[in-house]
Every structure is written in C-alpha cells, then in structure tokens.
Design goal:
Length: about 110
C-alpha cells in the first residue's frame, strides 16, 4: 500500500503522524511524508527561503521517524508552491479507509462508491 502523509509544523500534525504510524499497515507498505513551503512572493531573500526549507525538511524528517520506527519504508519530500491552491481533492476508493485527515482542521469522511 502507498501511503501519502502531508504534514506541517503544528502539534496536531505531529499527533496525526504518530497516530497513523501506530496503525497496522499491510506488509510492504511505503510511506511518503511531504510538506509544502509557500514561496515568498514579491521578495527575494535567499536566507529566509533557505531557513524555511530547512525547517520544512526537519518537519518531514520528524514525522517520518514515527513511520520508520514502526518498520515502514519511508521517504520524504519538501515541495514548493501554494498548498491552498487546490479547489478540489479527489480520493480514489481505497475500500477500507473510514476517515481521511486532511491536515488541521479538516476531516473528510470516506464514503464507498460500492
């Protein structure tokens, strides 16, 4: 199973990562932990951009550690862009998911199409 975990630096995100890592996942599951750094529009301050990227890297590494400790293969990525830019999120029918957390404070209840 491929598991995508989006994180930020909030305590809620840390708790959600810890909770997700504690679940029983099928053997061979792969976790990808990501976060998004918003660009600084209208400014060019390389030192601040680098500090934001370093903080984001620390955030994904911290969350990834929970999954690694649970014995799951885990990768991380820091992406650049506007995480609030999506108007629609499509989740495929995964069959066994009862709820999917979309970061703080959103929660989507899964409804099977079957």
């Amino acid at each position: 199973m491929n598991i995508l975990v989006a994180v930020d630096s909030s305590s809620t995100s840390v708790a959600a990562s810890r909770e997700a890592a504690a679940r029983l996942w099928p053997a061979g599951s792969i976790v990808r932990v990501i976060t998004v750094v918003e660009p600084i529009y209208g400014w060019s301050v390389p030192e601040i951009e680098e500090a934001l990227e370093q903080a984001a890297e620390q955030t994904v590494q911290c969350a990834a550690e929970y999954f690694k400790q649970a014995g799951l293969e885990t990768t991380t990525a820091v992406l650049m862009g506007d995480p609030k830019g999506a108007d629609f999120l499509s989740l495929p029918d995964a069959g066994s998911i009862s709820r999917v957390g979309l970061g703080s404070p959103f929660l989507v209840r899964y409804v099977s199409g079957d």
